[in-house]
Structure formats: structure tokens, C-alpha cells
Amino acid sequence: MATKNTQLKTRPESNPYEVWIGKEGEAGRMTQGFLAKGWRWLVLKKYQVDDNKPYARWFCKVYSPYCPDGELGDVYTQDIKPYAERAVVNPLADARENAGYDGDDDDAEGGE
């Protein structure tokens, strides 16, 4: 039986599944022609369960020195993982999804 993809539903930018931060190459040099320092990927959706499959992709909000306001789009995992480190994994993403979380944190902060 196939494993269910619990991250197939697109999440809002304020509550991504994961956040990946670009890392510097050795002594600040480019890694394979790419300097990832200053890049950040907010993973909003994963199309496959296995991120290591060839052509596995994520829907991300990507911030970079070239686009500081960010851009939305699909990114191959092989274009992120070698150059970045996973900084944040949202432990509440699946719990909120299963509990019918609607993205509104007002109740948790004492709002009405």
C-alpha cells in the first residue's frame, strides 16, 4: 500500500511545512557555481512523499538576493538540498490539518 502524502495540500506562507536556509560554500566560495547564502525556501506543498526521488519537487516561496520580496513556484528538491539546510520543520502542520486548522491563530493568542 502506498504511503499517503500528508503535505500535498498547499499551506499559507505564514505556516509552511518546512523552511530551508541557504548555506555558504567552503570558505564562502560558490558550490557548483551557486552561492546559496541569502536564499530561503518556504515549502508550502510537496508533490511526492519521497523527496529523494529523481525530479521530486516542492511548491515554495523563495527569497533570494535577486528577489528579496520572494517568488512562488515549483522547485526540484535536488536544486535545494545540496545547497541548504533544513532550519524549521513545522510540527503543527499535520496536527492542525487533521484538526481542521483554518490558518487563524487568533484563538491561540487570546483574540476573538
List keywords for this structure.
single chain; 112 residues; mainly beta; 1 helix; 32% strand; globular
Provide a descriptive summary of the structure in words.
- The protein has 112 residues and is mainly beta.
- It has a domain at 18-92.
- The protein is 6% helix and 32% strand.
- The protein contains one helix and five strands; from the N terminus they run βββββα.
- Strands 4-3-2-1-5 form a five-stranded antiparallel β-sheet, with no helix packed on it.
- A hairpin with a 2-residue loop joins strand 3 and strand 4 (67-76).
- The longest helix is centred in the C-terminal third of the chain and has 7 residues, at 92-98.
In short:
This protein is mainly β and 112 residues long. It has a domain at 18-92.
- Helical run tally: 1
Number of strands: 5
Strand content: 25-35%
Unreliable stretches, pLDDT < 50, 5 or more residues?
96-112
Q: In percent, how helical is the residue content?
A: under 10%
Strand order within the widest sheet? Answer: 4-3-2-1-5
| Shape, per Cα inertia axes | globular
| Structural class by helix and strand composition | mainly beta
What is the CA-atom radius of gyration, in angstroms? Answer: 16 Å
Along the chain, the helix and strand elements come as: EEEEEH
**Amino-to-carboxy terminus distance:** 43 Å
Could you report the average pLDDT, rounded to the nearest whole number?
78
How is the main sheet built?
5 strands, antiparallel
What's the layout of helices and strands?
Blueprint: E1 18-22, E2 40-46, E3 57-64, E4 67-76, E5 84-89, H1 92-98
Antiparallel strand pairs: 1-2, 1-5, 2-3, 3-4
